[in-house]
Specification:
The structure holds two protein chains of two kinds. By secondary structure, chain A is an alpha/beta fold. Chain A is 44% helix and 19% strand. Chain A is built from 14 helices and twelve strands. In chain A, the strands form two sheets. In chain A, strands 1, 2, 3, 4, 6, 7, 8, 9 and 12 form a nine-stranded mixed beta sheet that branches. Chain A has a three-stranded mixed beta sheet with strand order 5-10-11. In chain A, helix 5 (121-129) packs across helix 7 (164-176). Chain B is an all-alpha fold. Classes of the chains: A alpha/beta, B mainly alpha. The A-B interface holds A 60-64, 66-67, 153, 155, 160-163, 184-192, 195-199, 203, 206-207, 210-211, 214 and B 106-111, 177-178, 181-182, 185, 208, 210-212, 290-291, 294-297, 306, 308, 312, 315-317, 319-322, 325.
Chain lengths: 340, 360
């Protein structure tokens, strides 16, 4: 055998080995909610390092994610809004929550430090309805007896794009204010009675930071990273709570998951004493009888990883991992509902 | 024929034998004939070669014409396809709600009732104000560069203005939001206190000084369309024959009189074309407007209040829109088509009227 032939044989063997290696790894695809995108990309990188399986997640928006999983073009979809019973049954889908995040009212008032201002649901609804227009309004003053509120006009900032954040925020306001429910209602985009619209969490953050005496709502992570003033809220139990990991987790723990079929439950206005009132999650949606069982298996393994080792990555990005009780319930749901 | 054949014939005997062989081989089928007749009557062969050549040329020409026609038709097909597909995508709202879609200002995704008046209003107002600001400025820039500036300054200056046109609109948006909006927020109280006092006109300048709004968006748009209009104006001003201008100067005209009475009438139709080019860009501009317009479905008399535009509404909401909401956004896209088409139509009509008046 000449050296040239040897080389050729070696090259052939290498190709073969690589080919077999590649066949072992499975690539799965998910699409949907932009709310979970940051943590999804962290998880999928870490998961690929550990197992060699890659998870491609495209943040195309919840509506797109739902459409894709219905069409069967992805292995899992992600939506900030749970699907109802009829839709799940019609398309043979199941859904479960994967990570928790909080939505916080963010304000920019020169004299008031972050976390000092206290608001409650009805007052927040009135501000966003345009009924309370000045910071020195008696309703705000009653909640903040120790703070000198400025006599300045309130500028309301909301999302201009359709988003799960808006859905959860408007859902909360609908729960606490009948007036909001009848005039505006809930949805990923609503007919805002007042204010200006910023595109995305970053758009709202930028506007709040620039416009004095403004108030908006953003995901907790954005308020922290942009050093925005965030308000404390009086929750359903009447207690004033700060937005943090503990209060988000309390909301998830006290929400009545056991009676929610297909986890169809929004955590807003959760009953617990320490629960943050505007807590949100997003739902992973999968086909119950998958055509590609191998991919589906990897997807479940990926979510198992996310609930376990992936916790620290979620916390680092200011998300909150699901409480242990909920994770057990989800695993039970997998066994009962999905073909694995 | 005879003359042409003679010219070729006199050339041919001088050809190198190898070259002569390839020459005759290229004109297939003539090889034998040409050999046979070469000595006796060269002219006949060459005439028939020339005929064959001109026939194949005509053939090629026909194909070339068809190819060019196909290129042009492709544009028409794309335009028609885009218009029809937006019409089709928006049919649920366009035909379901009819005229109500055009006249209503309520945009409510919760109850699925959509009215396009607020975005149409925002688009028209911001584009109109942008034109009002940009046209005189562009005119001044173009005049300065063609009539007044020293020659060594013209090149760099013109390049600098064209550079403005190459900045991506997202950059204008970021600049608008982080630099220009705070600046506007600082001067808006002054505007309200001075211009806001004038009766009637003052209503344009009421409102909270938040820096975002119709006026801010219009100014950013004006900066964006400025290079388009001014570079067209500059180019056409340069085409005015020097003797026309110099004759006018010789008669004792001032620079302004030369520009107003000679340069502008000479280039009028091209100048209007340039202005409408800018208007077209202003109508469709998305990112920069989204950043500074405020994105609220408002119709107000004040320029300091936030508004929305057709393209920014689509860009904002399309991602998560499903069902009727999506149909409403596609219908908005169709409306933008219609608005742009109407604007172009008006410009054509204006140009035609001008041409007729000049002809008369």
């Amino acid at each position: 055998m000449t050296s040239n032939n040897k080389l050729r044989l070696l090259a052939f063997a290498t190709t073969l080995a690589l080919g077999i290696g590649a066949a072992h790894a499975t690539d799965i695809t998910g699409a949907g909610s932009s709310f979970v995108y940051p943590v999804m990309s962290k998880w999928s990188a870490a998961y690929a390092e550990k197992t060699g399986n890659r998870v491609n997640y495209q943040s195309i928006g919840s509506g797109g994610g739902i459409a894709q999983i219905k069409a069967g073009t992805v292995d899992f979809g992600a939506s900030d809004m749970p699907l109802d019973e009829a839709t799940l049954a019609k398309f043979g889908l199941g859904q479960f929550p994967d990570v928790i995040g909080g939505i916080v009212p963010a304000y920019n008032i020169a004299a008031i430090a972050p976390g000092k201002l206290v608001l409650d649901g009805p007052v927040l609804a009135k501000i966003f309805l345009g009924q309370i227009t000045n910071w020195s309004d008696p309703a705000i003053a009653a909640l903040n007896p120790d703070i000198a509120l400025p006599g300045a006009k309130i500028t309301v900032v909301h999302r201009s794009d359709s988003s799960g954040t808006t859905f959860n925020f408007s859902n909360y306001l609908s729960k606490v204010s009948p007036d909001w429910k009848s005039k505006v209602g809930e949805g990923t985009a609503v007919n805002w009675p007042t204010g200006i619209g910023g595109k995305g969490n970053e758009g709202v953050s930028a506007y709040v930071r620039q416009i004095p005496n403004s108030i908006g709502y953003v995901e907790y992570a954005y308020a922290v990273q942009n050093k925005l003033g965030y308000a404390r809220m009086k929750n359903a139990a009447g207690k004033v709570v700060s937005p943090d990991t503990a209060s988000f987790q309390a909301a998830a723990a006290t929400a009545d998951w056991s009676h929610a079929k297909n986890f169809n439950l929004l955590m807003t206005d959760a009953p617990g004493a320490d629960a943050w009132p505007i807590t949100a999650t997003s739902w992973m949606i999968m086909v119950k009888q998958p055509k590609n069982a191998a991919n589906s298996k990897v997807a479940f393994d990926f979510f198992r990883y996310a609930y376990g080792d992936g916790k620290s990555a979620a916390t680092a990005l200011d998300y909150v991992p699901l409480p242990a009780g909920l994770v057990n319930q989800i695993e039970g749901y997998w066994k009962a509902e999905f073909k694995q | 024929m005879r003359v042409r054949g003679f010219r070729y014939a006199s050339l041919r005997p001088n050809l190198h034998p190898a070259l002569r062989a390839t020459f005759s081989r290229r004109e297939k089928g003539k090889v034998t004939l040409s050999r046979k007749v070469m000595s006796s009557n060269v002219a006949i062969t060459v005439i028939s070669n020339a005929e064959r050549r001109s026939r194949s040329d005509a053939h090629h020409d026909a194909w070339f014409r068809r190819l060019l026609k196909a290129c042009a038709l492709l544009v028409l097909a794309a335009l028609l396809g885009a218009a029809l597909s937006t019409l089709w995508g928006g049919r649920e709202v366009l035909f379901g709600q009819g005229l109500h879609f055009l006249t209503s200002a309520e945009w409510n995704p919760v109850t699925d009732t959509y009215g396009a008046w607020a975005p149409i209003f925002g688009t028209l107002v911001t584009s109109a104000i942008a034109l009002i600001l940009a046209v005189p400025l562009s005119f001044g820039i173009a005049l300065f560069l063609t009539e007044i500036a020293p020659t060594w300054l013209r090149g760099p200056f013109a390049t600098a203005i064209e550079l403005l046109a190459s900045i991506p609109s997202i950059i204008y948006g970021m600049w608008g939001l982080f630099v220009f909006v705070p600046f506007m927020a600082r001067i808006e109280p002054g505007l309200s206190a001075t211009l806001g006092r004038i009766p009637l006109l003052g209503r344009l300048f009421e409102g909270p000084p938040i820096g975002l709004g119709l006026l801010t968006a219009s100014i950013v748009l004006a900066v964006m369309i400025l290079p388009f209009i001014s570079s067209v104006m500059r180019a056409v001003f340069q085409t005015v024959p020097n003797r026309l201008k110099e004759s006018s100067y010789a008669l004792g005209s001032t620079t302004w009189e030369v520009v107003w009475d000679i340069v502008l009438p000479y280039t009028r139709s091209a100048v209007i074309g340039g202005i409408f080019l800018g208007l077209g860009r202003a109508l469709g501009e998305t990112m920069a407007v989204t950043f500074v317009l405020g994105n609220a479905y408002n119709i107000t008399s004040s320029l300091l209040m936030p508004g929305t535009s057709i393209s920014s509404s689509i860009a904002n909401e399309f991602n998560e829109a499903v069902g009727t909401h999506r149909s409403a956004l596609i219908a908005l896209g169709f409306l933008l088509f219609v608005v742009t088409f109407v604007v172009l139509l008006i410009s054509r009509l204006m140009l035609r009227r001008l041409a007729r008046r000049e002809g008369a």
